């Protein structure tokens, strides 16, 4: 099997830069004295120096006699995407054929490369082409993990990774046998049970009773375990990252209390520090959040995700220079990783470039950021080999750059070719064709509908349907008169009123004229009654982009748009009252009135917002029956978020 195309060397100056900037890792001399942990880069450096004995000693440094495989989490250092490492790992295995550590390291490397070649949201959406790219790496990794387990059967990581590989290879009988074998050594491991559930999800997809029965069994069995929270959110269909818990359920105070209780029990717990940092960030205590992330980095220098969290924190604080430095460090820790390269490209063009263009008035810096983003995406495509999300990200960057629409359409087409069963990719292609004035948008939309109806996790977006059929293109493409638009229907047969298509005014204008002139044009349109412009001025004033940060002006524009019947603005006022945002008092009755007003306009986000409040009992007694009814109505209006919340709140009852 050949390695990922391309070859790169880990430059010494990159190591010096990262160590100096973040001050997280020890020198090799300090490591030799046993004073600090190895960092990921230092472990890779030892590998390149072929110091295999030193690496093996480090991996097993804290191992207990009764469980010599307990600390193999350190092999995460070898999930480094440098193509040059393949030959070095082979040399390690040849030099020490009886070392389960060497086999684990090489298996981790191949498993990591296989996962990086995926690039789809779900296994169901992963194309056969993508799976074919992943398969050789997974087969190599499986061989090494099984050989390592033959030498030492008490390696939890080996079993977990083999279960994940079994899922991608569709080996359910193998997963069953492996799970029973692993439970003899780890009878109470949440991680093992989670990996087994993950490996069997496709087999159990048609048997919801089995899936949810096993899910409840796991929840009951691990209720007192420290991994229970992770397991609970995983099997509910949620993202494991604690930020999602806060984003969707508003449990910042609860997560803060839990993480502090865990820190009281285990003082140096990097995971609890990361949880507390996320909670503090959402609660507005960003200085404390940064301190927790820094402390977690000192405790776990191998945990690269902390650098990503720090970049996100700075980005949210509009400290773009610090965000750029943090994301640059995140990429430098594994410069061949397509996901990291893509993440940096997204961050560069999603706000940092605007900061350079409009705040620093640095046009050259703005141009350089877009050039670097496109370079990162080219490298990501090279190392990721046909990842569809890279093509989709390229289209997004070209749009933000103001590039020609033909290039955007070409990138969207490429993403569709790589994942033809992903409805989101067809939706994005439809939008790109529509924006380009291409009548093929209607054919792409029909394909989106067909693919969406075949998927169990997708509902046709009827608002999007109105845009495509009634947005002014139909008359030119089919010779129909615009005064007689075709009304769309919901799934229950009732009609949807046509909606007016009005693209974002302020952000589009910023691409065509200087910022001061663009803001003035936006303000004139808002004064003239353009509701989208009024809502956008609320957003600009609330974050202080191009205009002064002024809550009073922001709220004035938001209220003006809401009073004129702008459903998004009305719904936003509901959230402000529900959560007490912008210094307002929490007032559920007031929030409900705003939500209900937007619901009268059939705005799906309003149904979702009120259902969430009723389900969780936010400032009101919980009413899950009504929450379920509201979700059903939002789903009928084409809300994907409502569909996700239904699976999350009422598992097994999506029908």
Summarize the structure.
The chain is an all-alpha fold and 655 residues long.
Describe what this molecule looks like in 3D.
The chain is an all-alpha fold. The protein has 35 helices and no strands. Helix 9 (172-183) runs antiparallel to helix 10 (190-199), helix 33 packs antiparallel against helix 34 and helix 34 packs antiparallel against helix 35. It is globular.
What is the number of strand segments?
0
Helix vs. strand class: mainly alpha
Task: Identify low-pLDDT runs.
Answer: 1-37, 224-250, 471-475, 478-503
Rounded to the nearest angstrom, the radius of gyration is 26 Å
- Report, as a whole number of angstroms, the end-to-end distance: 45 Å
The helical percent reads 55-70%
Helix count from the secondary structure assignment: 35
* Main sheet: strands, sense, barrel: none
Output the keywords.
655 residues, mainly alpha, 67% helix, disordered N terminus
